[in-house]
Amino acid sequence: MQDYDEVTAFLGEWGLFQRLIFFLLSASIIPNGFNGMSVVFLAGTPEHHCRVPDTANLSSVWRNHSLPLQLQDGREVPHRCRRYRLATIVNFSALGLEPGRDVDLEQLEQEGCLDGWEFNRDIYLSTIVTEWNLVCEDDWKAPLTVSLFFGGVLVGSFISGQLSDRFGRKNVLFVTMGMQTGFSFLQIFSKNFEMFAMLFFLVGMGQISNYVAAFVLGTEILGKSVRIIFSTLGVCIFYAFGYMLLPLFAHFIRDWRMLLLALTVPGVLCFPLWWFIPESPRWLISQGRFKEAEVIIRRAAKINGIIAPSTIFDSSELQDLSSKKQQSHSILDLLRTQNIRMVTIMSIILWMTISVGYFGLSLDTPNLHGNVYLNCFLSAVVEVPAYVLAWLLLQHLPRRYSMATALFLGGSVLLFVQLVPPDLYYLATILVMVGKFGVTAAFSMVYVYTAELYPTVVRNMGVGVSSTASRLGSILSPYFIYLGAYDRFLPYILMGSLTILTAILTLFLPESFGTPLPDTIDQMLRVKGIKYRQTPSHTRMLKDGEESPTVLKNTGF
């Protein structure tokens, strides 16, 4: 019996139908680049200090000395969260006493910012931090916003995989796309931090759900050679394109509400794609809906100008496939056999570590020396050559070695950051960008690799669970960056070490390079270094211990 790739080989690899699917699904990812990192500017924290009311009866000398000083990066700056007791210095000002000459400032009593804060507006006109005073005692709320967004991404990763495997890739893609766009729009009308954070959680749910659904939909519709290009140069570069536009929008729109409105508009433009993007024929076949799958395949042939064969699925194939495919599958199937269990555990570790590195380095851009908008733009631009490299590696080299190479590059460079002299901070920025390059290349390849390891019946669920694990890493990533308050090199040491250890783990995963996508659990490739019991139902084994996925046999799943 033929597999899906053989049945649909007559369509060709790069006809008009495949090009439409490629570019339309890729275009649907652009808003994800906006929403993914928009918090860098929405929750930006400008320089600030306690407000001294204009109504306070202070001389110009005392007004200039109303704030205690603190050390920051080796220089004295006004304290962000304290001021001298206003009643006391008003009294001294009225008596004509001079600060420093008649009054020892170090002995003066201090108080909090009882009249609010003054925010520097050179970089941001307004952010959620300046609007709701998320500083000093409330400074924990800004990083919590990031964690809540990624918490939504975590929940979305978990449920979207199961919903997509049950209700279809296309339905979940557009429902979650609407969820992301709709709740982003509602954020503009947030009355307080709690409302903004709750809506941001829901935006996160939609953001990753439509990304995974679009990725799996394209992977299942496109042929083997185009599948790799779609997963790297397609989806990922269009995501980076949205990411690159973010600092450009933010540079010209410095108010957070107007910026959010501008970033929401492109999502609305994606909804007409419903009439052009079909459901995955692979998924329809896995549900036993062969007639609907055949309609889509024949329509694709017509678009490509190809005459489809009179019979695409013969009766024996339909009967055999129906007996297998109409069974329902749950998340427990990802742990059912020893092999798929090991693949799932290793994928979880791999995705989590890569996510810590990718999002940690992306969120760290405001802390680098130089212009915050330029640093963010460079962080986005460096992803493009990373995706090109990932595509070249996936096209010509084994998956395991490609992943390990990218991870070793990213991890080792981050470890070298601590050796850079303080006066060569531009070199440190370059090393961070090279580290982002390596981690981004690995992040691009891990989607392809994971999708190739899991079979059709649980592929979206497998990618979804792996993506769920990566979101645990993204939730933790802001706190890796905040460790820099204790030692500015500690985040790079931790991220670099974890990345290198994960590179070693990658070498034990099975190699999927040059093999067809498995459709059932028993067709999956074998994890290295583990002995498996032989059963009569097993098919011919390859020299390295991997089962050939080209032979379809049902062993009870």
From TrEMBL:
GO terms for cellular component: basolateral plasma membrane; brush border membrane. Gene3D superfamilies: MFS general substrate transporter like domains (1.20.1250.20). It is found in: Apical cell membrane; Basal cell membrane; Basolateral cell membrane. It comes from the Eukaryota. GO terms for molecular function: (R)-carnitine transmembrane transporter activity; amino-acid betaine transmembrane transporter activity; ATP binding; PDZ domain binding; symporter activity. Keywords: ATP-binding, Cell membrane, Glycoprotein, Ion transport, Membrane, Nucleotide-binding, Sodium, Sodium transport, Symport, Transmembrane, Transmembrane helix, Transport. The chain crosses the membrane at residues 20-43, 140-159, 171-189, 195-217, 229-250, 256-277, 340-360, 372-394, 401-419, 425-449, 461-483, 489-509. PROSITE patterns: MFS, SUGAR_TRANSPORT_1. One of its GO terms (biological process) is response to type II interferon. Residues 88-514 form the Major facilitator superfamily (MFS) profile domain. Pfam families: Sugar_tr. It is a multi-pass membrane protein. Belongs to the major facilitator (TC 2.A.1) superfamily. Organic cation transporter (TC 2.A.1.19) family. NCBIfam families: 2A0119 (TIGR00898). Interacts with PDZK1. This is Solute carrier family 22 member 5.
